[in-house]
Amino acid sequence: MNEIKIIRVAQGKNSTLSHLYIGGLFACYLLEDSVRKEKIQGLTCIPEGEYLLSLNSWAGMNAKYAPKYPKLHQGMIEITEIPNYQLVFIHIGNYHTQTAGCPLTGSYWQLLDGDYQVMHSTAAYKYVYPLLVGEIGKGNNRIEVLNQCSTSGSPSLR
Q1: Residue ranges of the DUF5675 domain (predicted)?
Q2: Exposure of 133 in the CB half-sphere (CA atoms within 13 A)
Q3: Angstrom distance (rounded) from CA 31 to CA 86
């Protein structure tokens, strides 16, 4: 079975830069909120662990994505089974202020004023979305989240 992984590689002041791997291959960058020991609603990335990926066709973000991407959208890719978290979607965005605890897709990253941001988010989303939908359809619907963060200001390249 192919593996889907989020590997966190760098920590900013309020942000976390990650790599998304699908089938052992790098697929895109992800931006999340900070890694924290205690959860702060909307400001904390999901904890390390293994979770379920599913398609959510009822939550609020579908109203925005379905008409915007009618040929692509089959539901929001949701990460479920996370203790004390719900409605965590992989979606488009550039800044940690847009995450609300969700991973944002990016084609590349930059560091500005101590925080990471991801750029060309829509292009990355359009690339990884069908890959993840395909994996979910094949029953490969587990995602592992690993922390390998560096706080030095530059991500570890793994």
Answers
A1: 5-131
A2: 14
A3: 18
**What pLDDT, in 10s, does the model give residues 124-158?**
999 999 999 999 999 999 999 999 975 544 554 43
- Using CB atoms within 10 Å of the CB of residue 138, give its burial: 0 to 12 exposed, 13 to 18 middle, 19+ buried: exposed
| pLDDT exceeds cutoff 90 at 107 | yes
Q: Which residues pair with 141 in a beta bridge?
A: none
Q: Is 74 helix (H, G, I), strand (E, B) or coil?
A: coil
Task: Please provide the size of the chain in residues.
Answer: 158
- Structural domain contains residue 156: no
Q: What is the pLDDT of residue 156?
A: 47
| Cα 48 from Cα 94, distance rounded (Å) | 22
Number of structural domains found in the chain: 1
Domain of 102, in residue numbers: 4-150
For residue 12, being part of any structural domain is answered with yes
- Which positions ≥6 away from 120 have C-beta within 8 Å? 106, 107, 108
CA distances from 138 to 54, 127, 132, 155 (A): 12, 18, 10, 32
